[in-house]
Structures are given as structure tokens and as C-alpha cells.
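TA notes, week 10

Several of you asked for a full example with nothing omitted. So below is the full record: C-alpha cells for the whole chain, then the designed sequence directly under it. When grading your own attempts, check the secondary structure regions first.
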């Protein structure tokens, strides 16, 4: 199983980016999908999570600015990021709870850099 992220880059303050993460491989089922981020010198933190395409949860710092969504047919999760701030600069990691051969485990992407310049 692989998670491949795309969509990161350099953007100015107030701008927008859309991250994508596609899961591939011998997947039986996917439960939660989400995004974490890690800024230099800081711990990795939860940004947003979506469960079964209905229930969502966001970090307080991104509520009202970021939107998580998923396309179950494509095993893909998205993160629409609007009104970006310099403090959103970080490496963003996709994660998913995936069932493979009747066993559930968490998988992670390689990370994509998001840089917000002021």
C-alpha cells in the first residue's frame, strides 16, 4: 500500500493550495483519512481528519480556512487550504487507516512541503 501526496508548494499569505493524497495497492477498505503537519522544530500535529466521508474534525488553528474531503471511489483525500498564513508553513503528511488482508493499520505518505511567504 502506498499513499502519494501532491499539491504542495510556495504561496503568498492569503493564498490557497489544494493537497491531494491517493492510496493505492491491495486495499480491502479505508476508514479514517487525514492530514498532519510538522513545522521545523515542532512536533507533528493533526490538521484534519475525515471518517467515512461524513464526519470531520479540524485543528482549531485551521477551522474556517481548511476543508477536508474524500473521494472513496478513488481512495483519495483532499485538503483545500484557503487564507494561508505563515504559520501554516510545514511538511504536510497524509495518513489513512487501511484494511489489508483482514488487518487494519495506519499508513503514511512521504510528505509534501507547504511554504507560505509573507
Amino acid at each position: 500500500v502506498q499513499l502519494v501526496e501532491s499539491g504542495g508548494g510556495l504561496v503568498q499569505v492569503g493564498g490557497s493550495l489544494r493537497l491531494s493524497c491517493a492510496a493505492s495497492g491491495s486495499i480491502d477498505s479505508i476508514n479514517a483519512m487525514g492530514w498532519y503537519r510538522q513545522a521545523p522544530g515542532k512536533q507533528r500535529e493533526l490538521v484534519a481528519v475525515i471518517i467515512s466521508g461524513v464526519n470531520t474534525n479540524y485543528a482549531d488553528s485551521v477551522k474556517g480556512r481548511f476543508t477536508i474531503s474524500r473521494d472513496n471511489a478513488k481512495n483519495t483525500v483532499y485538503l483545500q487550504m484557503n487564507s494561508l498564513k505563515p504559520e501554516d508553513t510545514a511538511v504536510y503528511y497524509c495518513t489513512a487507516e487501511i484494511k489489508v488482508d483482514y488487518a487494519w493499520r495506519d499508513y503514511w505518505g512521504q510528505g509534501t512541503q507547504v511554504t507560505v511567504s509573507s
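Residues 20 and 78 are 5 Å apart (CA to CA). Use that as a sanity check on your answer.
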